[in-house]
Amino acid sequence: MTIQKHTVLTKDTANNKLVITREFDAPLEQVWQAWTDSAILDQWWAPKPWKARTKSMEFREGGTWLYCMVGPDGPGSWCRADFESIVKYKSYTGIDAFCDEKGNITNEFPSMHWKVEFSKIGTGTRVEITITFTSAADLEKILELGFQEGFTAAHGNLDELLAG
Fold it and tell me: How far, in Å, CA of 151 to CA of 157, rounded?
């Protein structure tokens, strides 16, 4: 089986969802770790030349990941992910929101509900992300911010990291 190293984003405006599918040429356990360990996330999560910088992360049900997207000119946006459910090597769900450096959620940009699913495919791993928004307008606002381009670039970063 050939790994398809391109990010596929499907917009489902009727249901306020984005579905993103990406395959990685690495074992499921390695890909899972890359998505759930802050030291590894910091190496690929942000599109270059941006970097993700974790302030704190508790990857557990009820835990939070607090991080900043840092650009060439300094700190950019702070974000937090609140983990709801985790099934090791299978999936996790949570709410992703923009916040201040203390983790207080701001309403400057819409929050998103993420469901991230992992499955073994041949020698690689497929990751399917379903992001649900409160409204179609919120979905469009995130896309206007460059989400598709940024997330696609970050996946390229992860390819490089997994290959190295």
Answer: 10
The count of residues in the chain is: 164
Q: Say if strands 112-121 and 64-71 run parallel, antiparallel, or are unpaired.
A: unpaired
Tell me, what CATH number does 17's domain have? Answer: 3.30.530.20
Domain count of the fold of the chain:
1
Domain of residue 130, residue span: 8-163
Digit-by-digit pLDDT tens for the chain (164 residues) are 677 789 999 999 999 999 999 999 999 999 999 999 999 999 999 999 999 999 999 999 999 999 999 988 877 889 999 999 999 999 999 999 999 999 999 988 899 999 999 999 998 999 999 999 999 999 999 999 899 999 999 999 999 999 98
